[in-house]
Structure formats: structure tokens, C-alpha cells
User: What shape does this take?
Amino acid sequence: MTVVRHNQILKIKWPLQLWISLAVFVVIALGTLLLLQPWQTIKTVDVQSTLIPSEKIEQYAGIYPNTPSWKVTGQTQFIAQKIIKHDDKIDTAKVTQEGRQVTIDIVEKVTAGYIQKNKQWYVINRNGVQNKVQSPEGNAPIYAGFSNQADVKMVVAEFVKLELTLRQNISQINFSPNKDNANRLLIIMNDGNTVYATLGTFGKKISYYPGIAAQMPSKGVVDLQFGAYSYAYGTSHANVTKKKADNKAHQK
Assistant: This one.
């Protein structure tokens, strides 16, 4: 008699448990559906990169306008890692999604320069790390005269922040102190000019160079040590080609 009653109870409870399970499943399914919104598509893909074309980054990521949103939602970190694996020129990648817009920020590996120590050449990356190479490839400046590696790293940290065209115009960066400036840098430019700068203000002052060089009537020296001015080769005094911004910097 007890067994019969027990079976009857089970028969009564089972349908209730089934309905509860079914309700939970429906709620989860609807929640997932609303989250992924498979009917939505990506409207725009904004790629932030310097050297690598946007089309290539989109190809690496597998994301284009009209790509289903569910292929991106919740997978941005995985997509970022996939981008990095596709191209050894990429240092870091960040993928963010806001509604139907995807932004891909790319930080490319920058060769910050080359330096020779004990007849061995080293390539310097954007973090100041040095690795042995056979010889310079000509795609970044040569560093010379530095005895302190901390000074090299300081210059590198500022160099990699510069605009690409300015980085490409720098041929050599020499540590060249004199009696007036114990932290003087002598910089050889690919356009034929010479720049004098100071170790601690190199990054800030070198940004003035393109504007000053554009006003120079002939090749010469751009002095950024204590002000910002230029003079032609063979002259002993400064030729006044200062910009208003440079005058303000000098007053500071």
C-alpha cells in the first residue's frame, strides 16, 4: 500500500518539475537571444592603426560591416588575440563593441633604433629592450655616444611617441655633451638638417622641428636646447625663424 501511494506522489510531482525545468530553459533561451540579438549586424568597424591597412586588420579579426553581432559579443578578447597571432608587426590589439559599432585599436611594434656595443649591433624595441642583430636595417635611427642605458631608454620612450613622418626623418641620435649642456643630444636628420636638443626635453621639443624646418630658407641647424630657433650652416648666429609657439615655449 505504501509503495502504491509513493508512486502516485511521484506521478503527481513529475509534471510540476517538468514545467519548472521547461520554464527555466525558456527564460535562459530568451535571455541568451536578447543578449546576442542574432538579427543585429555590425554597422561600422573603426580601425585605429598606423602602418597596417584597415582592410588587413578587418580580415585578421573577421569583422566587417554587416557581420552578425553575435560573432563579436562576448568574444572581443579572443578576437584581439587572433589579430595579434596573424601579424608579427602588431604589439597589442584591443577590440571593443558598443552596440553595432566595433572599434579595433592596434599598437604596432616600433623599431626604436639600433645601437652598437663591443662591435655587436642591437635593435631596440619600443620598450627599450635590446636584442642582437647582424646589422642595422636602415628603418630606424642609430644611437651613439650613450654610456648610460637609462638615457637610451629615456630617448626611446619619447621617440616612439613621435609622428611616423618625424620618426622616419631621424637618422642618428648622438649623446654629445658640451660645457654648456651636459645632456646635449646631436640629432642628424634625413632631410639634411642637424638638431641640437636636451635629453630631458627631447620628446617635447622635437615636435617643433617640422614647423621650424619648413620656414628655413636653406639647410642648417635647429637648436632646441634652451629655446627653439634655427640658423643656416656656416653662420655663427641664430636666424630668427621662431614661431609663436616656440617663443611661448622659450618663455616657459
Notes: The first strand starts at residue 44 and ends at 48. The helical segments are 2-36, 54-61, 76-86, 149-159, 164-169, 202-205, 209-215, 244-251. Confidence is low (pLDDT under 50) at residues 238-252.
